[in-house]
Amino acid sequence: MAGRPRVVIIGAGIVGCALADELTERGWTDLVVLEQGEPFGAGAPAPGLVFQTSGAKTLTEFARYTVAKYTGLTLDGRWCFQQLGGLEVATTPSRWAELRRRHGWAASWGVRGYLREPGECAELHPLLDSGKVLGGFHVPSDGLACPSRAAEAQARRAIGRGARFLSGQRVTAIERAAGRVTGVRTGSDHFRANVVISCAGTDGPLIGSMVDLAVPLVPMAHQYATTNPLSVLAGQNDFRTEASKPILRHPDAGLSFREHIDRLGIGAHRHRPLPVDPGAAVPEFNPEDFEPSWTAAADLLPALGDTKIEHGVHRLSAFTADGMPLLGEHPGLDGFWVAEAVRVAHSAGVARAMAEWMVDGQPAQDLHSCDLARFEQAQLSPGYVRARGSRSFTEVYEIRHPRRPSGPPRPLRTSPFYERQVELGAHFLESGGWERPQWYQANAELPEVEGIPERNEWAARHWSPIAGAEALVARQRVAMFDLTPAKRLEVTGPGALSFLQALTTNQLDREPGSVSYTLLLGEHGGIRSDLTVARFGREWFQVGVNSSLDLDWFRRHLPGDGTVQVRETTAGTCCIGLWGPQSRLLLQPLSTTDFAHRALGYFKAVQAFIGEVPVTALRLSSVGELGWELCTGADMGRRLWDTLWEAGQRFGVIAAGREAFDSMRLEKGRRVWGVDMTTEHDPYEVGLGFAVKPAKGYFIGCNALAGRSAETVTRRLTCLTVDDPRATLLGSEPVYADGRPAGYVTSAAYGYTIGRNIAYAWLPAAVAVPGRPLRIGYFGELVPAVVAEEPLFDPGMGRMLA
């Protein structure tokens, strides 16, 4: 926003105070922070444990900034953060493997960490029984925050720049006019505002309801207890230091520990979920419910056997369906922002990103996994939010696998092919609420299954060798892939072309029947998404997008004159990817359209009939095979499936799942937005410069790309191959060059056609040289890899690199 707007922040906890500090530092000083209770979180002291390492790069970067900022803060001479170190211990083999994986994450995201033997763990934290642990993961820069002091220290800095903090101000209404926020009312006052930010924590849904915004979080109560004084801690700490040992996590028991001078504080997350309605009373602490956690704690820390629980409470924390924060602007009300479901460990990092977003128009850091607009409409129901929020609570310390099945409510969204897929024994995972087949048990008897290499115990979770057979059959014959969950939009109207031209990078002014691959960029040139745009008429475009974030972006940029209409069609349509060398032979007898005609070559689109089913047929392939994306109305979906299935029997058609798709798309070199590329990367770094046509005229981000090219980049998304068949990478592993971390893996899968593991990774351009040997950190080991030319497989080029 240009100029210096009037800003109201709702909530003076650590997030609100951190945001006030970051905004006023950037010149937004006409700012007031409203708190209904005690400011700075003084009325609700938090344990303050800061463990930085996460499988999510975004969260780790939030935490790294939080540590750096709070380490430099003091309040009246007292610390706001102590770098005591963080220690996570394993008592089971599976947890020890998981901690080795976490160590790899730390290396990927630039956090210095160490794997420790049991004796070393006991040296770091002498209360530990070293005989009970198999090892630990130690991060020296982790530590203990004092949230109330950190909040007040930042508030004082903001006040020094002109901000005001008012307590006893319960918000009763958010005022708005002409699609913009205009003010905030409390029980006693009125505040004019151009920008309002909700940092209300567990009351976020109540504030959101005042502006008709679903804030999909659920407050969850969890146990926190403090012990009587421990004799072994006597004299080790005082009122000013409070603690001296590393903060400790015992994830196998769902426990965390910190010192309170001569006492221990114990947080427990393994009890049954206790969702609390916003505004409702927090349940009282029940010592009997805490007993299993106390037993596990005393087993790990024998000194607890000489004491007991002195005080226990239920603390409230906000949980979302995916465990990530909720950040962003109201999709229908300009100027109303939220920063909710934020942990203390991420508070300063979130505040910086939000301030950049509001002041500069975009954050430097990729925030797609935290964006308020990321959820589908079906994921916003109170029942869904409650069920998935409860599951997120139970998963805080669970060993999580990238392909781990999600919990209820399921099935929520199903394609018209769902019953046919169930009949074929589909193994489903979920994406955006959709049931998406990973592989089909009906293919278990394919002879190709016998040649699929085994995986280690970790990589074999939620996987089957059947998926490999499906990939090979798709390469050899033909397969049907359910693409229904892929989001589809229809853009129409006399301004449709100019609208799309201004938002995307490629030249879309082509004849009807053309399909274009193009990118959405931010003003800084970073990739917001990649799209396929099929033109079916002068004013009619079918657009394949990645997520609800793209729909939100389109709607925010619609012209106000009504010349463009954007309509999502996903739920009312369905889509089959028919791919493989036999696909044209299968399809041609079913239609009067000549699918072999040259005019229907690659990146072409046509309206046709497949049997009795009207379809839009796009000559596209994400897997490097001949084929089409065939879309029709949901009412005709079953008929389309049955027509293709029956006709395909003579060609050996199979249904294939997402596991096969992922393997094949990596062999082809197909990038996936949100995984391989984000707003932090430009098209030339990703290898997608071909989709950028500066000569077409203005588009968002074009100015930022001036002077950039594939030759000027300093880093590249790089294809790697790994010979070791046991090293089935999962993503986020560190890549080492000359013994030092040089980058990290984005996507990985086994290439069944080429017979090697494949990984894509971000690496310095000087390292990304074909033939260059590298190593990848894999569960504590260094696995040899080599930089490869791409694509690894392309039947059109007659090329397969093995």
Topology:
Layout: E1 7-10, H1 14-25, E2 31-35, E3 49-50, H2 57-71, E4 74-75, E5 78-79, E6 81-82, E7 86-90, H3 93-109, E8 114-116, H4 118-124, E9 135-139, E10 143-145, H5 147-160, E11 164-167, E12 171-177, E13 180-186, E14 190-192, E15 195-198, H6 204-209, E16 217-227, E17 247-250, E18 255-260, E19 263-268, H7 287-300, E20 309-320, E21 326-329, E22 336-340, H8 347-360, H9 382-394, H10 418-423, E23 426-431, E24 434-440, H11 465-476, E25 479-482, E26 488-492, H12 496-503, E27 515-521, E28 527-537, E29 540-544, H13 548-556, E30 565-568, E31 573-579, H14 583-587, E32 605-610, E33 613-618, E34 627-633, H15 637-648, E35 654-656, H16 658-668, H17 683-686, E36 715-722, E37 734-737, E38 740-751, E39 756-764, E40 773-778, E41 781-787, E42 793-794, E43 799-800
Parallel strand pairs: 1-2, 1-15, 2-11, 7-17, 15-22, 25-35
Antiparallel strand pairs: 3-10, 4-5, 6-10, 7-9, 8-9, 12-13, 13-14, 16-19, 16-20, 17-18, 18-19, 21-22, 23-24, 25-31, 26-29, 26-30, 27-28, 28-29, 31-34, 32-33, 33-34, 36-39, 36-41, 37-38, 37-40, 38-39, 40-41, 42-43
Helix pairs in contact: 1-5, 1-8, 2-8, 11-16
